[in-house]
Amino acid sequence: MNKKFLFETSWAKLLLLLPFLVLAIGINMAYAAESPIKGTVTAQEDNSTLPGVSVTVKGTMKGTMTDMDGNYNLVADENAVLVFSFIGYETLEVSIKNQSTINVQLALNSALLEEVVVVGYGSQKKSDITGSVSSIKAEEIDAFPLANAEQALQGRAAGVVVQSNNGGEPGAPISIKIRGNTSISASSTPLIVVDGFVGATMPQPNDIASIEVLKDASATAIYGSRGSNGVVMVTTKKGTNGKLSVELNSNYSVQNTANRLDLLNASEFASYQQTINPNYVQGPADTDWQDLLYRTGNTQNHQFSFSGGKDNINFYASANYFKQNGVITNSDYEKVTFLSNIDAQVTDKLKLGFNLFGNRSEKDGVPTQSTGETANGGGDDVISLMFRFMPDLGVKDANGLNSTNSIGDNIDNPYSVATESVNNTKNDQYRANLYANYEIIKNLTFKTTLGFSSTNETFGVFRPSTLIITAGGGTGGKASIANFRKTNVLNENYLTYTKGIGKGNLSLLAGYSYQKTSTERFTAGASGFTSDSFSFYNLGGSSVTTVPTSSFTEQEIQSQFGRANFDYDDKYLLTATVRRDGASNFAANNKYAIFPSGAIGWRVSNEDFLKNNTSISNLKLRASYGVTGNQAIDAYQSLAKFATIFTGINGQSVNAVVPDQSANLNLKWETSYQTNIGLDLGLFNNRISLALDYYNIDTKDLLLADQSQPEYLGFQTLASIRNVGEINNKGFEVTLNTRNVNKGDFNWDTDFNWSTNKNKVVSLINGIDVFLDASPGYFSVARTHVLREGEAAGVFWGYEYKGVYQGDNLPAGTATFQGAVAGDPLFTDVDGSGAITTDDQKIIGNPNPDFTMGITNNFSYKNFGLNIFFQGAYGGDVFNLTKVQLLNGDSNALRDVLDSWTPTNTDTDIPRAVGNRGREISSRFVENGSYMRLKNVALSYNFPSAIVQKLRMENVRFSVSAQNLLTFTKYSGLDPEVSYFGAGGGDSSSGNTTQGFDFGNFPTVKSVNFSLNLKF
Questions:
Q1: Which sign does the torsion angle of CA 6, 8, 14, 16 carry?
Q2: CA distance 608 to 602
Q3: Tell me, what DSSP letter sits at residue 585?
Q4: pLDDT tier at 1002 (50, 70, 90 boundaries)?
Q5: What would the pLDDT profile of 212-225 be if each residue is shown by its tens digit?
Q6: Which end of the chain, N or C, is surrounded by fewer C-beta atoms within 10 Å?
Q7: CA end-to-end span of the chain, whole Å?
Q8: SS3 for 297-323, per residue?
Q9: Which residues, at least 6 apart from 906, have a Cβ–Cβ distance to it below 8 Å?
Q10: SS3 520
Q11: How far apart are CA 901 and CA 888, in angstroms?
Q12: The pLDDT value given to residue 474
């Protein structure tokens, strides 16, 4: 359903920015009343130009930054002093003295060269960090357009796996995993901390100054239970004292599907069906459902921001508008976001700050990734319907009604489902965070924060009466509406003490944190409407209503934490952290747990025997060990619960209460014991930087659902959460950064990362295998993957395919299903019984990749810049459930079936065509999911300073980029990056066992993007 969201046209949206542009130009002209000054800033050590140098007029808010050629332009009084500052270089002050051109050289400052990174409750020099931390800066985030800030992590941080939960779907959530799945039933999603707010929503990419990923226990233990899956620290941009900056970023992209399946056309389909059923009569049409449903999509993204500072106050504010029309008809997403930061130095001792964030989004989507349980044969899933539906039928039948399948499952055609269904999601998110920082005495500061966030989401679904099957067939349509509201209150208070002790430096931190989360939900549904005109907004106009549901939950965490950092002689580093967390999720006697960690570091390069080494500029050894906990389970799992049911008394329906869940008075924290050993190496004045990390994570007391409870106890829910089991993750990470060329006009840098993660289930409840099913419900399959001691979590389970039975003697060690004839599939006879039964199922694949990697090359020549980014994974398998369906015989099919076994075509690996093969789960459909993808290639141009100066601007940049242009893979499906939700449905972002399944995923898109950046 197409809707006007905020404004009538895109032009109207852009016109809203016009007043801000006029204001920016006016402000800029106000500063132009004095004499113009220009010049070039270069590095003293090699005479190379320095882009991004801050040039300010001392004692004022006037200022600018050097462009890509190191040039700057500004206006100032003839008696003023210019201040040149740049990270890693000495600050330089130069008096103007009637000069119109001032060229300067900046000298390296080894003391300032240290990169500062954000860690929990503070920041540290990178050289002083003893834990494993990856850092992504604003220039990397801005290298190409991103719909979500989470995507900036993909391929850029070793040990971090980022994936869309539904391909290129507009507004699809993003899954982040750090160092693998460290749990089974509890969430493995990392903690997001934005400007100190724990559990925040990611801001827009252009608002981010830096992202730090804390990976080992030494770095994450300060967050205790919240940091068990890693921590993503986000710092948004802030104003700079002494200059005013106005910026406009505008992007527009064109998108198309990256790949399509090769399916049968109408005549091929009819011939295929006649092989199965000679009486089949070809239909009247020849419809390519992919052509009908796919379209050219587009996105537009416009952001306006302004920042600055004067005297004792700095500010940054931005507004963003994003719109995407997806590559599938009727899939659209629209979002408006704002962010502001204000920091004020009230007195010499007191500093105040306020952060405000909000967004409003609306998604009109099409149903995808169906569980197969919500309609006949999974008939509400547009993607799988597009592949399955008969190509010899059109959208309408001879009576003008929507066409439905006449073979296999009774389903509506995909175009009608896509264009007539309504799937509308409205989401509002707001966050406010206030802090005060007070210096009690010299070296001792106290910081307090008070934050509040709110998420409110409404999801409405409507299936009109014209959808004969999906709407229930003659029910007059059906509708439902659900609402989700979550509020979060956070208060943190901590003291920080720093002191120099001889050759050493000591930093102490102690604090208290309290966070309360409240969640409200309700759902309602109805069917049998007299009109389709009101969508889901008139449930009262129905003849049948479903039982409404509602719920309210509260969860609380209160914590005390402390950290000590000590470095001696800039050589020997020590970090000790402890946090005591209490969570309401657990039983009364186990609510609290203590999570300690310790780490040591040795800066070998500062020892006398290496201090003056011309080759080795940095060498540091790191080691850490720590304990973190996981409490990411639903509330009230330790309590006895009752459930309501309907029963009959004297012929009337009444409510009744029955036991639902037994109490677990021993439920406690899931705990991870983490070891990390690392090395940081810098060569040739850090032109080559290498970081190596080895880690081992043992997660014990797993929060697992125990289904061994006997039914005679009378509980509705037999599976209760218990602390049983252990899982292990270990891996190796490599990060390499090189400055390959740095000569005059030409620069070339390379960033490379590579990581492995080996996951193993160490123990389960009584050592018994846990079988799981990720197939669509209508597949009627019981097992697709398994949890087994000694194996990776979620390995594929099924029959081992051995080819096509030729009708003669069976090859040794093989068998067929009972009643098989020549041309039927052949499988490994695991138990040697001579026939294939469920006892012959075995592990047939592993979805976990052997390694993941990313490599970025940045080139610059004069005003031109080129970014080339590759990302990939090797070794993970994909279970192609789509192929299971399309080779089953009861729907349209892949062109592979044209090579099916026949008495005259026996040299083939594809069994004979039958009407319904039973959707077998076998290794025949397990494929190599390795891939290498050209994620981005971007060419940018910074306009010459002479032109920019005439426009009274600071910088003008235009860029053209392309995303997902090339993918190198052997996988036969649409895309090897898959994340089918599985039979349980819902969001797979926190799933740990359902991995590597492909069915009904929204297609990945390739796009070409045009960007314009204006700075005033």
A1: negative
A2: 13
A3: T
A4: confident
A5: 899 888 888 888 77
A6: N
A7: 40
A8: EEEEEEEEEEEEEECCEEEEEEEEEEE
A9: 804, 806
A10: strand
A11: 14
A12: 65
